[in-house]
Amino acid sequence: MKRKGLYSLLAILVAAIFLITGCSSGVSRPAPQERGKIKIYTTIYPLYDFAAKIAGDRAAVEKVVPAGVEVHDFEPSPKLVAGIYEADVFVYLGGSIDPWAEKLAEQLLKEGVTVVKAGEGLFQEEFHGDEDPHVWLDPVVAKTMAERIAGAIAAKDGENAAYYRKNLEELKKRLDDLDEKYRNSLLPAKKRDFVVNHAAFGYLARRYNLNQIAISGLSPQQEPSPKKLAELSKLCKEKDIRYIMVEAASSSKLADVLARETGTKVLVLHPLENLTEEDMKAGKDYFSIMLENLENLKRALNE
């Protein structure tokens, strides 16, 4: 991704929105109770799901990145940017997954929008030498993100603060239960290594004492060299790895090649960066997909 060009484009978009909407620093924003439900905009799916569970029926939550869109390559349109300026709360992760939001956040703060950088201070650079943004795949770390989101929503809409805090506690309990299921299932597993087509599972692997072996890098578009594929093929045979894990939304072509080379099978391991429209209509959410991931990890690590 050409970030300098992206940031320049975003600066132009923001300036255009100022001209169109008449936005200027110091403009008085009506109190939430004067406008009905507060509006919350989020960037990627996990933030949307947590915000929606916390907000319940007391606030309107929208996701900026459309269903099914590859988040690593997403750029907001002027229309989307204009909509975000109507928000009371804007939630983004930070880091390499939604870099366009960083510049926008600075302008939103000047306009009185409450901004939450949910991943601040949570990223690690130990996975493949790059900053890994996929912190939500660790249920323990996800609790910190949920607390930050709930705190901002409650501060913006004080009348419903107790309601939001109650929903936060229920969400944290579900995250604790999810963590317990993962611990009970994965810590005793026979194998510690699993192969994925997208290096999104470093935090999950660290939490449960596993070792992620990635075909490609932190972005699913990164392709490995023939040498890398040969090394992975040898490693799969040495470690008796019988499954290659692929994310549902990406092409499994490289994983299929490796599976043929090694006689392994393919299983889904969803990174939850975004959901498809079909997933959303089917009622899937963070917890249902994390449990599906757990079942497939159990299979891969015990056969």
From TrEMBL:
<dbReference type="InterPro" id="IPR050492">
    <property type="entry name" value="Bact_metal-bind_prot9"/>
</dbReference>
<dbReference type="InterPro" id="IPR006129">
    <property type="entry name" value="AdhesinB"/>
</dbReference>
<keyword id="KW-0813">Transport</keyword>
<dbReference type="GO" id="GO:0007155">
    <property type="term" value="P:cell adhesion"/>
</dbReference>
<comment type="similarity">
    <text>Belongs to the bacterial solute-binding protein 9 family.</text>
</comment>
<keyword id="KW-0732">Signal</keyword>
<dbReference type="InterPro" id="IPR006127">
    <property type="entry name" value="ZnuA-like"/>
</dbReference>
<protein>
    <submittedName>
        <fullName>High-affinity zinc uptake system binding-protein ZnuA</fullName>
    </submittedName>
</protein>
<dbReference type="GO" id="GO:0046872">
    <property type="term" value="F:metal ion binding"/>
</dbReference>
<dbReference type="GO" id="GO:0030001">
    <property type="term" value="P:metal ion transport"/>
</dbReference>
<dbReference type="Pfam" id="PF01297">
    <property type="entry name" value="ZnuA"/>
</dbReference>
<dbReference type="InterPro" id="IPR006128">
    <property type="entry name" value="Lipoprotein_PsaA-like"/>
</dbReference>
